[in-house]
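Structure ticket #2291
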Amino acid sequence: MEPRVILITGASSGIGRAAARTLARNGHIVYGAARRVGRIEALVADGVRPVELDVTDEAACRAAVSRVLAEQGRVDVLVNNAGYGSYGAVEDVALAEARRQFEVNVFGAAALVKAVAPGMRERRSGTIINVSSMGGRLVVSRMGAWYHATKYALEALSDALRVELADFGIRVVLIEPGAIRTQWGAIAADHLEESSKGGAYEARAARTAAVMRRLYSSPVLSAPHVVVRAMERAISAPRPRTRYLIGFGAKPVVALRALLPARAFDWIVKRTS
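Resolution: structure written out below.
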């Protein structure tokens, strides 16, 4: 595969870190962006170029893309991977925190799309990969309403962008991981317990958080490289899929949701989370 110029957000940990390292080792020109840029310094030896970036800062998003353009002349691939899960009952989570989650998970991705689209459009070439979740298709746990809402929004944004940008040779791809072996679940569980302290949902939140911690410490979960392989396929394919549903539980759970009535699936969610 010809080397691509790739900008990846959320590159300091988990899926983003694995993607930045692997793609750079495979010969691509990779810019790894994160708020905590010090965590990316260890990837420099693999060829990753660190970029300090808070995706909620639109000016910083434009500056990050401008730096890549100044140094390389183009951005071939944007991977919008930055995101987090702030769990808690809708009643308990402050609207300021809900808005922040949308700023990171949705508007940050949109800001970077707006920054890279003009250059891709002029060259009539480019790939935008938005890392969503199987949770962008269905609700799989209690008290994750705001997180799921951001992923549903990212899916809709991606579907609309795919149509808008197709005439300019720009491909828009969704990656929808299932349960992946990262710190995401433990962090989301911490958010859940913190948001529910002293409230009506505290006992239920504690049980749900315990389920999340058990799940995300399980050896059966998929490794981040399962997601990285999907990214590689999306980058190299002449006509990539619109969606890559991958990782532990993703395909069977989505299939089950399609088969069952909504209330039956709700019952399963309540019993298992």
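Closing remark: The first strand starts at residue 5 and ends at 9.
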